[in-house]
Amino acid sequence: SSYKEGGALDAAIKERFGSKDDMIAEVSAKTVAIQGSGWGWLVYDPKTKMIDVECLPNQDPLEATTGLKPLLGIDVWEHAYYLDYKNVRPDYVKA
Is 78:37 a contact under the CB 8 Å cutoff? Predict the structure, then answer.
């Protein structure tokens, strides 16, 4: 893992979310809430110089349409989790 306590990413997470656990909770909740297929993203916004959460439907491109830089993407198209998680999206996102 490239995540280091006390590193630049840790500082950005604490500034925006308060803690790593709070970040995971927000990314998970927003990703699970996507209607239909899409992607949940942890992103870096070059305009605000902060990280944030962005969700996009279908295969809409992140960077080309928003200017946001992807740090972590969670694919919530059924093909990503159906066989292993029997269409239980929250269990897939939690894993």
Answer: yes
Q: 42-71 burial string, b = 16+ CB within 10 Å, else e? A: bbbeeeeeebbbbbbeeeeebeeeeebeee
Q: Give, for all 95 residues of the chain, the pLDDT tens digit.
A: 566 788 999 999 999 999 999 999 999 999 999 988 999 999 999 999 999 999 999 989 999 999 999 999 999 888 778 778 887 888 989 98
The single residue listed with the structure tokens 């928003």 is: 66
Instruction: Provide the token pair at 29.
Output: 């909740």
Cβ contact 22:29 at 8 Å: no
Phi/psi at 44 (5° precision): -110, 130
Q: Please classify residue 7 by burial: count the beta carbons closer than 10 Å to its beta carbon, then call 0-12 exposed, 13-18 middle and 19+ buried.
A: exposed
* Alpha-carbon 19 to chain mean position: 15
